[in-house]
Design goal:
This is Cupin domain-containing protein. InterPro entries: ChrR-like_cupin_dom, RmlC-like_jellyroll, RmlC_Cupin_sf. By secondary structure, this protein is mainly β. Helices cover 0% and strands 52% of the residues. A 6-stranded antiparallel β-sheet has the order 1-2-3-10-5-8, with no helix packed on it.
Length: 106
């Protein structure tokens, strides 16, 4: 059993301004589960999914590949799909990817 308490969460800046990640776990197939915190206006570039990915918006609003999602909204992507992420407001999202998601655009 793996437990990650909110009070112990460590936010790590990414290479993209305004985006931080708190890792829950890396999985055996190259993916990971984490919470991502995005400042309004921040942008994560277009990336390709080598496996499935699940995203749940915990707070705020984001745009994933042009689809606007608000608190409580969920998105599932299949292998081969691409999208970017834009924070329309300050937002927190849960992301669980099956495999790596290499960046393919800016």
């Amino acid at each position: 059993m793996l437990v990650k308490r909110a009070v112990d969460r460590e936010w790590i800046p990414t290479d993209y301004p305004g985006i931080e990640r708190a890792l829950f776990r890396n999985n055996e197939s190259g993916g990971r589960s984490s919470v991502v915190r995005l400042a309004q206006g921040s942008h994560f570039p277009t990336h390709r999914h080598e496996g499935t990915e699940e995203v749940l918006v915990l707070s705020g609003m984001v745009s994933l590949g042009g689809v606007e999602l608000a608190q409580g909204d969920y998105m599932f992507t299949t292998p081969g799909e691409t999208h970017d992420v834009r924070a329309l407001t300050d937002a927190v999202i849960f992301v669980s990817s099956q495999k790596a998601t290499p960046v393919v655009g800016k």
